[in-house]
Design a protein that fits this description.
- The N terminus is likely disordered.
- It is built from nine helices and six strands.
- The relative contact order is 0.13.
- By secondary structure, it is an alpha+beta fold.
- This is Transporter.
- InterPro entries: OMP_efflux, TolC-like.
- It is found in: Cell outer membrane.
Length: 445
């Protein structure tokens, strides 16, 4: 059975290998021009900038600060200099018999500095802060998630492009079959009209041949409209004008075997869930980090003085450390951590479920491909038999040994057999594209 299926695949590749070169080119164009992909790239770029923002939190922050104050009135500080020193000064004047020590007045100093300026360079830097550490890790994983989501969309888009391309080829072949059938029934119509004029056949055969021309013409027109719709949808996926002509490559090209082992473990959907699980673990660590202290340092270098004086005494520096430790917050972090733990359990359950779904999807698509190949083989044999039967009946009809109904039946069988073989041929490639998507085997350039 396997050898037979491999033979069918080789036949299938021989029929459709020519289309792959142009198809690969169209896929490349679509990945470049698709608007949704552009939007995903914008999101990725945004995530990259957010990651750089998170990294910048590790570096010091430096700012230039300046202030000038002008004050009058308000609270004061009373300094009793006179009350404290004048008795001492009087005693000294008496001892020295002089007035060398003057009488001092009590002082009153404004709390608000008047005509005072302060200019400094203020620098702060985190020394120990688990929050920004885990925040950076989370931003990194969010960026990775954006890239994985882009790959998921790209694979879906590639599958849709391939299916649309095969359906367009299918419609072109359908048009060709109907055009050949129309030429055949038109010739039958001409012959029957000639035979009727010579009283060789009755009017029934003439009417039937006329109806066949009308029926095939209508089917041909329908096939053309189906082809136009298929072309429009294909161009839509490529983000180009809907009526753009689609190029068909006539060169043969070998393709990998369609019979492949399941490799759903590499599906981006699983990678995404694994990444979400890791991200949730970092969210848990971020929540726990609120129980640890944060330590930061600061330093000021500047000048300050009254009346805009600048001298060596105006210069100063001021540095220190800041410690913050959250002692109690109403168990807020504890409850938040419980929520994160439930999310982790949910993600683990989703991973197990998705693994089974992806495996089922691959097996179904592989079985569909095998079924499509068997149907193609049967239709191909039926096509060969119908051609032989049509050739035989046509020969007998020309010799007058068969009636027109027999000829018409043979021709209809021949046309239908061609249509069925064409449908099953491209349905096989559509099934191949679906299996390729289910197994994530398409390789991006």
């Amino acid at each position: 059975m396997i050898n037979k299926t491999l033979t069918l695949i080789l036949v299938l590749l021989g029929y459709l290998g020519y289309s792959q070169s142009k198809l690969d080119g169209y896929i490349e164009v679509a990945l470049k021009n698709n608007e949704v992909i552009k939007q995903h790239n914008f999101d990725i770029n945004k995530s990259m900038w957010a990651l750089k923002e998170a990294r910048s939190l590790f570096y010091p922050t430096v700012s230039l600060n300046g202030s000038y104050t002008k004050a009058e009135g308000g609270r004061t500080i009373n300094i009793p200099i006179g009350d404290m020193l004048n008795p001492v000064y009087n005693t000294l004047n008496q001892i020295t018999n002089s007035n060398a020590f003057p009488t001092l007045e009590n002082q009153s100093v404004l709390i608000n500095p008047d005509n005072f300026y302060d200019a400094k360079i203020h620098t702060t830097m985190p020394l120990l802060n688990f929050e920004i550490i885990y925040n950076k890790r989370i931003k990194t994983q969010q960026t990775t998630l954006q890239k994985i989501e882009l790959e998921i969309y790209q694979r879906e888009l590639i599958k849709d492009i391939k299916i649309a391309y095969y359906k367009y080829l299918q419609s072109l072949e359908g048009i060709k079959i109907y055009e050949d059938a129309l030429a055949l029934v038109t010739e039958n119509q001409r012959v029957n009209h000639s035979l009727f004029k010579n009283d060789k056949i009755n009017r029934t055969a003439v009417l039937r041949s006329d109806n066949e021309v009308i029926r095939i013409s209508a089917n041909l027109e329908t096939a053309k409209q189906v082809s136009n719709n298929a072309r429009a949808y294909f161009n839509f996926l490529l983000n180009q004008k809907l009526d753009t002509q689609i190029m068909i490559d006539e060169n043969n090209k070998n393709l990998p075997s369609a019979l492949v082992e399941g490799n759903t473990e590499n599906r981006e959907e699983l990678k995404k869930l694994e990444q979400v699980k890791e991200l949730n673990e970092n969210i848990s660590k971020l929540t726990k980090s609120h129980w640890f202290p944060t330590l930061s340092g600061f330093a000021d270098f500047g000048i300050q003085d009254f009346d805009f004086d600048v001298n060596k005494d105006s210069r100063y520096y001021f540095a220190g450390l800041g410690l913050e430790w959250n002692i109690f917050s109403g168990n807020k972090n504890k409850y938040k951590l419980k929520q994160v733990e439930q999310d982790t359990k949910k993600i683990s359950s989703q991973i197990d479920n998705v693994k089974q779904q992806l495996l089922l999807q691959f097996q179904v698509t592989q079985n569909n491909l095998k079924s499509a190949l068997e149907q193609f083989h049967a239709d191909k044999n039926q096509k060969e038999s119908a051609k032989k039967y049509n050739d035989d009946i046509t020969k007998l009809y020309k010799e007058g040994q068969a009636i027109y109904i027999e000829l018409l039946d043979a021709q209809n069988q021949w046309v239908n057999a061609q249509l069925n073989a064409n449908i099953s041929l491209y349905n096989s490639w559509i099934a191949f594209a679906e299996m390729e998507r289910a197994n994530a085997t398409f390789t991006f350039n």
